[in-house]
Amino acid sequence: MTTYDYAVVGGGIIGLATAYKLLEQLPSAGVAVFEKEAKVGQHQSGHNSGVLHAGLYYKPGSLKARLAVYGIRKMTQFCIDNGIPHEICGKLVVATSEDEITRLKELQNRGQQNGLSGLRWLSPQEMREIEPNVAGIGAVHVPEEGIVDYGAVCEAMQRHIGAAGGQVLTGHRVDSLERANGTWTICTPKGQFQARYLINCGGLHCDRILAMSGLPRQTRIVPVRGEYFSLNEEGAKLVRNLIYPVPDPAFPFLGVHYTRMIHGGVEAGPNAVLATRREGYTKSEFSLGDVWDTLSFPGFWKFMAKYPSMTAYEIKRSFSRAEFTRSLQKLVPAVEESHLGAGGAGVRAQAIAMDGTMVQDFEIVRAEDAMHVVNAPSPGATASLAIAEHLLTQMV
Question: Do 232 and 348 lie in a common domain?
Answer without folding.
Answer: yes
